[in-house]
Amino acid sequence: MDIINNLAFGFGHALTLHNLMYCAIGCMVGTLVGLLPGLGPLSTISLLLPLTYAIPTDGALIMLAGIYYGAQYGDSVSAITMKIPHASSIVACIDGYAMTLKGQTGLALFSAGISSFIGGTVAIVVLSTLAIPLGEVAFLFGPSDYCALMLLGFVCVSFVTTGGHMLNGLSMALVGVLLGSIGTDVISGSPRFTFDMIFLSDGVHLISVALGCFGIAEITKNLDSRNQFTPFSGSIKLIPTWPEFKRIIPSALRGSVVGSVLGLLPGGGPTLAQFGAYAVEKKFSKYKHEIGEGAIEGVAGQAAADEAAARTSFIPLMSIGIPENAVMALMMAAFIVKGIQPGPKMIGEHPELFWGLVASMWIGNVFLVILNVPLVKYWLSVFKIPYSALFPSILFFCCVGTFSLNNNLDDIYITAAFGLLGYMFLRLGLEAAPLMLGFILGPMLEENFRRAMLISRGSFSIFVTRPISGTLLALIAIFFIWQIVAFVRQVKKGTPAPAAPSH
Amino acid sequence: MWTNQKVMRGLALVAVSLFFGIQAYNLQLGTLARAGAGLFPLMISGAVGLIGIVMLIQARFEAPEPMGFGIRNISIIMASLIGFVLIAHFVKVIVAIVYLVFVAGLAAADYSVVRNVKISVVLIGIAACFHYFLGLNLPLL
């Protein structure tokens, strides 16, 4: 009963005119960036983060969350119609595009839209039942447990984003931690890595890092590759027949469960969830022999999982206070900018924020189904805007976003420097997403590490003897041993290791 | 060696590790129980350096991967951004926007003056909206 009361309370907040508007803006922007190649939720949230300083807290968070889950809808549309892969829609390209080739674009879009709706709804039920009990678990966490959890997050994110080459991602997360330590040391007050420059004494601003690595570096990478996509121009017949509709539902429900679970894990989120759901469909679906050649199940399952995971990934952030992937790290920054520390105390202290956000996710779900199913034709016309017209505008927004931090033009130099750095890392085959997570978690990691060592009087045994951190560190150890075994086997065979699909 | 992405990746990480590690070593380290400002960054730099070395060793056992580094586009983008700041400082933001669009446009697959004029007009309009409606303090005119 409590949940229904709480949700009703949340809807009361989410249904105000202002919050509805922010939710709609978030969903529209999310769909748009999901559709366009080369502009993901990470770069968009970093572009819009400075603008949210001016709007009220609940509205800002509702809008940013809308961008994140809205982008999951949008990118399946561009994957199905034009085979444009985004981080979280690689799987949609397989069966979705195969359906387009068979002339079933409308059916594929309908399946993806409805499944996403089902996935989102299931995830909201999970979110509203699990967040509070998990928050109580978080009170058992000591400093060493937090450290172990963050390290496990680094390892998992590295594994997921770099597709099996875990060291690449892990090194970026640690470089992020180092970048996060630039500025004044909070405990001793002495400056670190500032080269006696005053503007570095407060550290590097998150927005500069995010806009540099995800805005400027990505633009340059896209310009280098010069991909041209031909806009989709086929006809779209949206309404499915009853037997077709019946095939969507079981896959969508399976996908929702898989997605909700995988969204909760450290390093989890939409990217991991879609692969999980696709594998499940291949094994358990009644039509598994058709999957890969344009089956409804191949689209429905992954779309539901994608959307479910995008929402349940808010749970670790809001109940434990540790973001599990780079987008959630940016969301955490948005909370902190507004003076709210996400974590076990947040739900109790700001119930209107938590339940309002949860309720807004369902309202956003309704918006998105309308935007992406009946109105999908109009969205496809955005592909008529060439990238050459788009990227100077994105560069301009990067400049404005950086300027608005301190009303200082010189900050743009720092953003540009991070753009150069991010581009070099990209060319070295190193992903920027773990760097972002490391950058935001770095100061927390250091604080908890120093506290844990203070409690244990300088002995590392505290990390092994406490049950929570011991278990988490054991998981990390298993990951490493597995990697070493895989490498040794590969060297013996002399063939390249089977890398998980990366983006 | 200089064209193998795997070797360069390892070298870059070792360089980052040395850059932060040497500075951290010169800060107060303290003891494990009472860590100084430099201890934690030193440990992390050590880990980054270790990963770099492991990558260098791995690269010896694996097939090389070519390095693709396009100097042209990144230089154009950097020039457009730095020029934007300088012009906005010494002249006005309006001129800087036009400069940004025209210079960055050089990196596009096709160059069109008409299109650049259109983009500049739209962006100046957006900048004016930010300035007059959202209260952003851009030195516009």
Could you characterize what this model shows?
The complex is a heterodimer of chains A (503) and B (141). Chain A has 22 helices and 2 strands. With 503 residues, chain A is an all-alpha fold. Chain A has one domain. A two-stranded antiparallel ribbon of chain A has the order 1-2. In chain A, α8 (166-180) crosses α20 (433-455) and α10 (242-264) packs across α11. The radius of gyration of chain A is 22 Å and the shape is globular. The two termini of chain A are 43 Å apart. In chain B, 69% of the residues lie in helices and 0% in strands. Chain B has helices spanning 5-26, 39-61, 71-90, 93-104, 113-132. In chain B, α1 packs antiparallel against α2, α3 (71-90) runs antiparallel to α4 and α4 packs antiparallel against α5. Chains A and B meet through α8, α9, α18, α19 and α20 of A and α1, α2, α3, α4 and α5 of B.
Tally of separate helices of chain A? 22
Share of residues in strands of chain B? under 5%
Query: What is the H/E string of chain A?
Result: HHHHHHHHEEHHHHHHHHHHHHHH
Could you name the ranges of chain B where pLDDT drops below 50 across 5 or more consecutive residues?
none
Give the neighbour order of strands across the main sheet of chain A: 1-2
Largest interface (CB within 8 Å) is between: A-B, 65 and 74 residues
Q: Which structural category do the helix and sheet elements of chain B fall into?
A: mainly alpha
Strand content of chain A: under 5%
Distance between the termini of chain B: 52 Å
Average pLDDT, all residues of chain B: 89
Counting DSSP E segments of at least 2 residues, the number of strands of chain A comes to: 2
Number of discrete domains of chain A: 1
Counted up, domains of chain B total 2
SSE sequence of chain B, one letter per element? HHHHH
Radius of gyration of chain B: 23 Å
- Total helix count of chain B? 5
> What is the SS-derived class of chain A?
mainly alpha
Overall, the morphology of chain A is globular
In total, the number of strands of chain B is 0
Radius of gyration of chain A: 22 Å
